[in-house]
Amino acid sequence: MFKLQKALYVLKQAPRAWYEWLSRFLLEHNFRRGQIDKILFIKNKGEDFIIIQVYVDDIIFGATNDSLCKEFSNLMSEEFEMSMVSELTFFLGLQMKQLNDGIVVSQSKYVNELLKKFKMHEAKHSSTPMAISTKLDQDLNGKPVNDKTY
Questions:
Q1: CA distances from 52 to 9, 38, 64, 130 (A)
Q2: Structural domains in the chain?
C-alpha cells in the first residue's frame, strides 16, 4: 500500500486533480481502468496480472506474481513522491489478514467501536445464526478475475 507524502490538499479540487494525474499515468503505462469501478486499474503480463485500487490518497495493489508488485512500486516511486507503507492490514473499515492459503477479511474493530459507541459492549452475547467456519472457494465455472471485461 502506498501513502502520498506530499499532499495537494490546499486546493478544493485536489482529490480530483490527484486522481486525474494518477489515472493518466497508469493508462500511459498500459493499465486498463475498470469499466464498473473507475478507481480500479488492471494490467496483464502474460498469465499474470496486477490490480490497483485507488482511494483518495491511498493505493492498494496486489498481483499474481511478486515481481509485478516490485515493478509497480518502482514505477510509482520514479514518478511520485510516495512511500511504501506496509502489507495491507486495514482499509476502509475492513481488517485484512494475509495467510498462505488465502485472506481473512473482518470488521471486528468496527463492530467493537459501534458496540462501545452505543454502550452495548457489555451486553449479553447471543449466538449467530450463520456458519462461522465457511470458507469461500474458487468458482471453477465462473469468469476469471483477470478477464478483460473489467
A1: 22, 11, 12, 32
A2: 2-85 (3.30.310), 87-121 (no CATH)
